[in-house]
Design a protein that fits this description.
419 residues; elongated; alpha+beta; 10 helices; 66% helix; Outer membrane efflux proteins (OEP); single chain
């Protein structure tokens, strides 16, 4: 998980997206600042009966917005709210990636174990085949026993090949998500110490801290601000302007003409064909939609937590049942082998008992994988599957550092990381 936290492409892409969102605040802040522009021009006039004349003009203009119906102020607030929503969305992406890591890790652990069990089963069947042929050679066995064992061996070889193929696919997924090839993997324990003590507490934790709910809350705030921006379009706007210009003949600079101007402008919307009133009605509907979305997200998170809690309980029960099944199957196989050696059982009975043991061990491996993944899935459902909460040995990514570095930056074209 520490490796994926640093290297995972999906997570790094989400971080880059949030850094881009940070710039929206600067773009909104620009509405408070004056606009300054300069221009220069050169021309030659031709008139019948006279010599051509040249002219050079320079001008500078400044316009400072004074009042725009609070749209700039609300736009800044909307941009800041978008940044906060983006940070919570980044936490959600972090949770998704870390849960994918757990799943990929445990899938590979499971598949490694199944390959090992398949190899052991194949070796056992080959030993049984040798023993059956030896008994046939001394007249104590039958050709049927040899054929039955050969059939089981062929089936075991096919199962082993399928297990290796599944292992290879799991290895590729692991490398894609984690960012490097797997080394020696061991079974991980469930994340029991960080989990709530009851389903009710888990639901309460999720409703308070899950990033998806926080994103939905910020979306409601943004929709409310956008409504205020739409309503602000009905207000008048006020701005101040100043300008200066100089026009001269480049060959007769003493004849230059210099002028300047200072003014104020008030613009009052009278009729816009219903566009602005339609924008206001649309913004009200968007606000209502975001409020409904919030209720939907809360209901989904509640259902996810309850489902994850049930999955963990079921997986825990399956582990206990599988452990008992392995113990019973091991004991049964030992007894049947001994009974076969004294002529009370057949080779087919031994093969069936070995298959039962293999199935029980495979079920245990799968149940152990499911229990670990279910525990982390429950932690993610409550909003707690983060690098900080897990105490991963990494330098935690701080989204506020980039925001602080770029807020208010007016001239630089270089990003804080030097691009």
């Amino acid at each position: 998980m520490a490796s994926a936290y640093v290297q995972n492409a999906t997570l790094n892409s989400a971080r880059a997206g949030l850094r881009a969102t940070d710039e929206g605040v600067n773009q909104a802040l620009a509405g408070r600042l004056p606009g300054v522009s300069a221009s220069a021009g050169y021309g030659r006039d031709f008139a019948p009966g006279s010599e051509p004349s040249d002219s050079l003009s320079l001008s500078l203009s400044i316009e400072q917005p004074i009042f725009d119906g609070f749209r700039t102020r609300n736009g800044i607030e909307a941009a800041e709210t978008a940044v906060l929503a983006g940070r919570e969305a980044l936490v959600g992406t972090e949770q998704d990636v870390l849960l994918q890591v757990v799943s990929a890790y445990m899938n590979l652990v499971r598949d490694n174990s199944i390959v090992g069990l398949s190899a052991q089963n194949l070796e056992f069947l080959r030993e049984q085949l040798r023993a059956a042929r030896n008994r046939l050679d001394v007249g104590e066995g039958t050709q049927t026993e040899v054929a039955q064992t050969q059939a089981r061996e062929a089936s075991a070889m096919a199962s082993y090949a399928a297990a290796v193929a599944t292992q290879t696919a799991a290895r590729a997924v692991y490398e894609q998500i984690v960012g490097h090839a797997p080394n020696s993997l061991t079974t991980a324990p469930p994340v029991g110490s960080l989990l709530p003590r009851s389903a009710e507490i888990a639901v309460q934790m999720a409703l308070e801290s899950h990033p998806d709910i926080k994103v939905a809350l910020y979306n409601v705030d943004t929709a409310g601000i956008n409504l205020e921006i739409a309503e602000g379009s009905l207000w008048p706007t006020v701005s101040l302007s100043a300008g200066a210009s100089r026009t001269e003949d480049p060959f007769a600079p003493d004849d230059a003409r210099v002028s300047g101007s200072v003014g104020a402008r008030v613009s009052v919307p009278i009729f816009t064909g219903g566009e602005r009133s339609s924008n206001i009605r649309e913004a009200k509907q968007r606000l209502g939609q975001r409020e409904i979305d919030l209720a939907v997200v809360r209901a989904r998170i509640r259902a996810d937590v309850i489902s994850a809690w049930g999955d963990l309980e079921a997986a825990t029960a399956q582990v206990r049942a599988a452990e008992a099944g392995v113990a019973a199957s091991q004991l049964a196989l030992s007894g049947i082998v001994q009974e076969r050696d004294v002529g009370q059982r057949t080779t087919l009975d031994v093969l069936d008992a070995q298959q039962d043991l293999l199935d029980a061990r495979t079920a245990l491996v799968r149940a152990q994988r499911d229990r670990v993944v279910a525990s982390y899935a429950l932690l993610a459902a409550t909003g707690g599957l983060t690098a900080a909460n897990l105490g991963l040995p990494v330098q935690l990514y701080d989204p506020a550092s980039h925001y602080t570095a770029v807020r208010g930056e007016l001239f630089s074209l270089t990003t804080p990381d030097g691009r």
